[in-house]
Specification:
Elements lengths: L1 H15 L26 H31 L33 H11 L7 H12 L5 H7 L24 H17 L22 H8 L5 H19 L5 E6 L2 E2 L2 E2 L4 H6 L6 H7 E6 L2 H10 L1 H5 L3 H13 L1 H7 L8 E2 L4 E2 L1 H9 L10 E5 L2 E4 L8 E4 H4 L7 H4 L5 E5 L4 E5 L10 H16 L7 E3 H11 L5 H7 L4 E3 H9 L18 E15 L16 E13 L5 H5 L22 H9 L4 E3 L9
Helix pairs in contact: 1-2, 3-11, 4-10, 6-8, 6-15, 8-11, 8-13, 8-15, 13-14, 18-19
Length: 620
């Protein structure tokens, strides 16, 4: 085998010496509406590319030899266990196109596609038992199993929400919302190529601003099945690679063989015969595929779409993420590994599941970094930047603090968590995350203030800390104003900030004579994929009989968000929008509307005011 490998390397070396056109690579954009010209390929980049080509050619040679040897040994009738880490045959493929697989009438056709890519493994009895316990625990209810075994990953048939995944059962919404967030990333911001967040794939430029209205119109109307499937496959691959340390993915599918006899019939008939109620059931029904090649992983997922659309889809994807991360690593990530990931009594996806899918680590908290509790004890938060983010209703109630990693992701897309459900908030323009002059100055001062806050986030500092903040941020209060703020022996953030709003910029304050500094207006969209009952029949008709089923539709809501330029605490608490001083008072100002989603939005954009048409957006 070593001789064959050396021969393959020499052959690849000869092939790579011929001139090859330079490949352009999109540069990383710093703005929402810009694209930079591709840089010239450096010698270092060219050398790395040639090295990859050499490795790919050698790998292809080894795999071809191994395949021939395997075919010669098949006559012995002995089963062989496929190594967990293997190089896939398609590792050397250069084409990144993924053709949409139409749902097959017979399950055999999809299995044939998968079998060409790689062989499956089965979990050991212990692995299956550990996996089941990590997900459901010991004291699970049948209702929870029903929820998680009856939720596929499928798109809405409604043209108005064709970009959205539909949730039919309570429980797996955390899995669906995370996948949905990545699907929107690829539909809104990516071209046909694969995003650079996956190893060996080029970074994508942000779409040009003029294209955004066209993109929005298409996303919010009707998408082709091919585009939706492409985005779904790419999203699932990116999430799994993130869980797998960007090195390999493990994909869990269903074993369609009963003993030595293949299960026959349509997909619905085959999947309907599968039952998962224990770890031993998992061992019987799961077929595990491993890949360290992006190309083959994409093709596997594309071929397995009918399986993920089945009633086990959400559960299979969660299992794939856990196995890609590694069960030992998952337990190491968690603060309390004795608790199941699916929470009782309602079967909701825990924060650990959502964080695993968003950041690649199954940590239980949403703050940045880790907190040292002393005596070698830590509680773990998010330690890396993310592609799509997370906002929490609980933060608006002061029960938690979402850190900047999740609050300010690379793309303006957030999973929104309430106390019982997960939904998705997104924008078509990356500029919604740009900070203006007021926000930059406020962030600078707030960081200095928080560094002196010894109350654990209570929002007040000592007089000594106050003077330190003034020195670090070059703020010069008049002596009488500084004495007034220090009269209580401590300084509260809200009073400090209000004083800064009245202090001229030349003295380090943020007073704005124009009344426009900090003003921002933008549009957000909120998607709730859970089916909602809508009265059947035409508008106003209440004649539906008791035997008729209501129409089920997910919901998409467009919100206009305004961040007022100036405000007082009283105006903020009263939800009164503030307008510049010199404004025609006869001008009609939209009345601010309120819903729980608005509270979540304000954790990202404080003081924001929201308006929408129709029913209020729901996050439950």
């Amino acid at each position: 085998m070593a001789d064959q490998e050396d021969e393959g390397m020499r052959m690849a070396q000869r092939l790579s010496t011929s001139p090859e056109p330079k490949r352009s690579k999109p540069g990383e954009n710093s703005g929402a509406g810009e694209e930079y010209p591709a840089p010239e390929e450096s010698l270092e980049v060219k050398n790395r590319r040639i090295q990859r080509d050499l490795m790919a050619a050698a790998a292809e040679k080894r795999i071809a030899a191994a395949k021939n040897a395997s075919q010669m040994n098949n006559d012995s009738g002995k089963d062989r266990k496929v190594p967990e880490k293997r190089v896939d045959k398609d590792a050397s493929c250069s084409s990144m196109a993924i053709k949409n697989s139409e749902p097959a009438k017979d399950i055999k056709s999809n299995e044939a596609v998968i079998s060409k890519i790689g062989s499956s493994q089965t979990l050991s009895e212990k692995e299956a038992e550990d996996l089941f316990l990590i997900i459901f625990g010991k004291n699970f209810s049948k209702d929870i199993l029903v929820q998680w075994c009856n939720q596929g990953i499928s798109f809405s048939d409604d043209p108005e929400t064709s970009m959205g995944l539909v949730q039919h059962e309570g429980g797996p919404c955390g899995v669906l919302a995370a996948i949905q967030a990545f699907v929107l990333k690829y539909l809104v911001f990516s071209t046909e190529e694969f995003d650079g967040a996956i190893p060996s794939m080029p970074r994508l430029p942000v779409r040009r601003a003029p294209d955004r209205e066209c993109v929005a119109s298409e996303i919010l109307s009707s998408l082709s099945e091919e585009k939706r499937s492409r985005a779904l496959v790419k999203s699932m691959a990116e999430i799994l690679f993130s869980c797998g340390h960007n090195k390999q993915v493990v994909i869990a599918s269903l074993n369609t063989v009963d003993g030595d006899r293949p299960l026959k019939g349509s997909e619905d008939e085959v999947f309907g015969k599968v039952s998962i109620e224990s770890g031993s059931d998992l061992q019987k029904v799961l077929a595990i595929y491993t890949s360290n090649s992006t190309v083959s992983a994409l093709r596997m997922l594309d071929a397995m779409l009918p399986v993920f659309r089945s009633r086990f889809g959400a559960l299979l994807f969660l299992i794939s993420a856990l196995l890609s991360r590694g069960l030992d690593n998952v337990q190491e990530d968690r603060d309390d590994p004795t608790q199941p990931l699916v929470t009782a009594p309602f079967g909701h996806a825990s924060q650990e599941i959502v964080n695993l899918l968003l950041s690649g680590c199954a940590v239980a908290n949403v703050f940045d970094g880790n907190i040292d509790l002393g005596d070698g004890m830590f509680v773990k938060g998010v330690t890396t930047s993310v592609e799509v983010g997370f906002l929490a209703l609980l933060e608006s109630l002061n029960f938690c603090k979402v850190g900047q990693y999740l609050k300010c992701p690379r793309w303006p897309i957030w999973v929104v968590g309430s106390d019982s459900h997960y939904t998705v908030l997104f924008a078509f323009d990356t500029k919604v995350q740009d900070e203006n002059e007021l926000e930059n100055r406020e962030a600078q001062i707030r960081r200095a203030f928080d560094a002196e806050d010894q109350s654990g986030g209570g929002g007040f500092i000592s007089v000594e800390g106050f003077h330190k903040v003034l020195r670090e941020t070059n703020i010069n209060f008049p002596p009488e104003k500084a004495d007034q703020l220090c009269s209580m022996g401590f300084i509260v953030w809200s009073e400090f900030w209000q004083a800064l709003l009245e202090l001229d910029q030349s003295s380090g304050g943020v007073k704005d004579s124009t009344g426009l500094m900090g003003k921002k207006v933008f549009t957000l969209y909120h998607f709730n994929g859970i089916a909602k009952a809508i009265p059947s029949g035409s508008s106003g008709s209440n004649q539906a009989s008791g035997n008729e089923s209501p129409i089920q539709r997910p919901r998409l809501t467009k919100l206009k968000v305004s961040v007022p330029p100036r405000w007082t605490p009283e105006e903020f608490m009263a939800d009164v929008p503030v307008t510049p001083g010199e404004v025609d008072k006869s001008a009609e100002v939209p009345k601010p509307q309120h819903a729980q989603l608005v509270d979540c939005i304000r954790t990202r954009w404080p003081r924001s005011v929201c308006n929408w048409e129709g029913d209020a957006p729901s996050i439950v």
